[in-house]
């Protein structure tokens, strides 16, 4: 029965009472973008550019980078594509942009920190994104990973705006979620990376199977921080999305919509299941679930509470 509903679902996504939710795809290259474009994805919410260069020893030229990014932008003519600047280091080491032998790489020089140490790298990547955006018709948004301080947010925004592009940050470090109102003043949009936000809030390695009960985004502390970020986005009238794995869980997706998220980005294979789940619930039910989960005792109770209110599995 559920399978039939998923197969029959066609986008764009709306709740039962007609509230629109932008469902976007997470992609890593042109091929994945083409596959995503064949689904109901309304655009790309997370283009992980570092995955284009995992085996690359030397920084690619601006033209080479522009060619790579252009393939993704071209697959979504006229649509929103959020290009994330290199999130190198930790679980995604890019040879030309990662320090070797860090004792604790997930707490080390990763994401925007790599690019701040080598400012040319960041500028070159922005030039390449600009070049690719100008050569295609996609609506390119630029987003920076691992932002943890306000000066970083101000600096990247200034550099992205200097190229005439929209500037955003990922909210995946607790310091940024805690001071989200001040960050909202600095940027055009934010997107929550639940994989890292959960890892850093719970102090539990996202790759550890033993710690899976800690690294679930159903942890009430993670839910409360996400709700805070969504509320701030509503207050400042700036787009707030979720692009971590949490967005691909149909039940949690409904809760996130209830918190006030504008877009959810996920592996394109998950879009139909999330769209079909949203079609079964009203915005008011999503909001009731969002209010209830933040006071749950633990992750399991949060999930069960949401399930009881929404009836989605
Ligand atoms: C995240 O941290 O949730 C995220 C979307 O980024 P990545 O998984 O690439 O670190
Ligand atoms: Mg991340």
UniProtKB/TrEMBL annotation:
Q: Which amino acids does the record list as binding phosphoenolpyruvate?
A: 48, 84, 195-196, 206
Cofactor(s) needed by this chain: Mg(2+)
Spell out the catalytic residues.
243
PEP-utilising enzyme C-terminal domain residues: 10-281
Protein task = General (non sugar-specific) component of the phosphoenolpyruvate-dependent sugar phosphotransferase system (sugar PTS). This major carbohydrate active-transport system catalyzes the phosphorylation of incoming sugar substrates concomitantly with their translocation across the cell membrane. Enzyme I transfers the phosphoryl group from phosphoenolpyruvate (PEP) to the phosphoryl carrier protein (HPr).
Similarity remark: Belongs to the PEP-utilizing enzyme family.
Name by which UniProt lists this protein: Phosphoenolpyruvate-protein phosphotransferase
**Section covered of the full-length record:** 238 to 550 of 550
């Amino acid at each position: 029965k559920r399978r039939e509903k998923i197969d029959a679902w066609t986008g764009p996504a709306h709740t039962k009472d007609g509230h629109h939710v932008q469902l976007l795809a997470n992609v890593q290259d042109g091929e994945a973008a083409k596959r995503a474009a064949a689904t109901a994805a309304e655009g790309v919410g997370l283009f992980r550019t570092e995955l284009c260069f995992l085996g690359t020893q030397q920084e690619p030229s601006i033209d080479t980078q522009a060619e790579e990014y252009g393939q993704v932008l071209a697959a979504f003519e006229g649509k929103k594509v959020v290009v994330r600047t290199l999130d190198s280091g930790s679980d995604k080491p890019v040879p030309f942009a990662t320090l070797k032998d860090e004792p604790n790489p997930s707490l080390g020089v990763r994401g925007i920190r790599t690019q701040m140490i080598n400012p040319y790298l960041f500028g070159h990547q922005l030039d390449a994104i600009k070049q690719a955006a100008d050569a295609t018709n996609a609506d390119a948004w630029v987003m920076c990973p691992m932002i943890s301080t306000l000066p970083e947010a101000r600096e990247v925004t200034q550099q992205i705006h200097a190229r005439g592009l929209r500037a955003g940050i990922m909210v995946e470090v607790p310091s940024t979620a805690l001071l989200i109102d001040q960050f909202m003043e600095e940027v055009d949009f934010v997107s929550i990376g639940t994989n890292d936000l959960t890892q850093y809030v719970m102090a539990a390695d996202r790759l550890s199977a033993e710690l899976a009960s800690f690294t679930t985004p159903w942890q009430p502390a993670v839910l409360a921080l996400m709700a805070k970020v969504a509320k701030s986005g509503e207050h400042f009238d700036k787009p707030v999305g979720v692009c971590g794995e949490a967005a691909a869980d149909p039940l949690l997706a409904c809760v996130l919509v209830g918190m006030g998220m504008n877009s959810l980005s996920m592996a394109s294979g998950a879009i139909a299941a999330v769209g079909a789940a949203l079609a079964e619930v009203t915005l008011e039910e999503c909001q009731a679930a969002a209010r209830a989960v933040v006071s749950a005792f633990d992750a399991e109770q949060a999930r069960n509470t949401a399930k009881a209110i929404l009836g989605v599995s």
